Amino acid sequence: MAKILLTGAAGYIASHTWLALQAAGHEVVGVDNFSNSSPVVLERLKELSGRAPVFEQVDICTPALAGVFERHRPDAVVHFAAFKAVGESTSQPLAYYRNNIGGLVNVCETMQAQGCRRLVFSSSATVYGVPERLPLTEDAPVSAVNPYGATKLMGETILRDLGASDPLWQTACLRYFNPVGAHESGRIGEDPRGTPNNLMPYVAQVAIGRRARLQVFGDDYDTPDGTGVRDYIHVCDLAEGHVAALRRLLESPGSLTVNLGTGRGYSVLELVKAYEQASGRPVPYDIVARRPGDVAACYADPAQAQALLGWRAQHDLQRMCEDSWRWQSMNPQGFQA
Ligand code: NAD
Ligand code: WQD
């Protein structure tokens, strides 16, 4: 069993991964600056795991990160900390490059100086740009279609170059598809600040009555019902994907890049229907214009994750909606309640 440092530890995906790593027997140290999360997460993690989380409030772009490594001496890092709003990245590109690229470089330099060279990186299906062929395999062409996507693509390049420069570096780039859902307890989940950018949290807020209607961005795509198709993946499956990737890095040499998706796409309207069923609430919607930059369909070929990590997603769309709804209905105002 290993000691794992999580950056962005209080965030949506990291908090679920924290529990999964502990359940697999690892020791976890978390850092976060709460730029997009709440300290209440730590109380909930304590309640769910029965142990006080080991945590330091640190900005990963600062020299203070070195002190965390000196105090805790992690065997590996799972690097979640980043800004993630696509629209905001086009209006504030420098903030995204500074936090996402500057942060990654500081994490890697600090690791190098401390002799820790195992890193799991939160990449994204956004690196596939506009897919030429579906399902997406890891050897599909990559491109950046917005500054956020550019930071993920550049992050992968930095790690590849690092691995080429020194074979002691072992990295796993995990290309997440569309993470949704929440821990089955309903005690942690996704808590977007302001208006949600992503579909499921928006649908959840309509179902609970925080927002009146969903806007469906286009129904004239070349898909079965005309609305966009995506590969939604339960955040707890995603968390297990990180446990599997770390196991691989700890047990075998080399680096890897894998998709974490289910392999199955659902349309916006299919998701809305599943959510209505799970919540027992209506989700009224209007069809509006397409959102600029959206693609018609995007879903993974998850075979490589199965072959290399022995991992595959377990939860279906109904379960993703049920767990999202439990979190939303138990915490109507998120962690602020
Ligand atoms: P999130 O915003 O909930 O979590 C990110 C966490 O990092 C937050 O708690 C934030 O406070 C923290 N953070 C940001 N900058 C920091 C800094 N400089 N120092 C310390 N902490 C900092 O987002 P998430 O959805 O959990 O995403 C986690 C990772 O996964 C991100 O790298 C994101 O780009 C990537 N990703 C997310 C999705 C998605 O749809 N949610 C999809 C693909 C990839
Ligand atoms: C899903 C579908 C929308 C909101 C984004 C990022 C990507 C990754 C995951 C980080 C699309 C439609 C949405 C709404 C709608 N993040 N939609 N009404 O765009 O696939 O991916 O999050 O790496 O980089 O781009 O996810 O949840 O925003 O949209 O109709 O109010 O729902 O058009 O078809 P997307 P999403």
From TrEMBL:
Gene3D superfamilies: NAD(P)-binding Rossmann-like Domain, UDP-galactose 4-epimerase, domain 1
Assembly with partners or alone: Homodimer.
One matching Pfam family: Epimerase
The species this protein was found in: Roseateles flavus
Record-linked InterPro entries: Epimerase_deHydtase, NAD(P)-bd_dom_sf, UDP_G4E
Gene: galE
Cofactor: NAD(+)
Every NAD-dependent epimerase/dehydratase domain range: 4-261
EC number of the protein: 5.1.3.2
Keywords: Carbohydrate metabolism, Galactose metabolism, Isomerase, NAD
Catalysis performed (reactions): UDP-alpha-D-glucose = UDP-alpha-D-galactose
Annotated metabolic or biological route of this protein: Carbohydrate metabolism; galactose metabolism
Family (UniProt): Belongs to the NAD(P)-dependent epimerase/dehydratase family.
GO molecular function, one term: UDP-glucose 4-epimerase activity
PANTHER family reported in the protein's UniProt record: UDP-GLUCOSE 4-EPIMERASE
Source species, domain of life: Bacteria
Keyword presence, Ribosomal protein: no
Keyword Ligase included in the entry's annotation: no
Protein name: UDP-glucose 4-epimerase
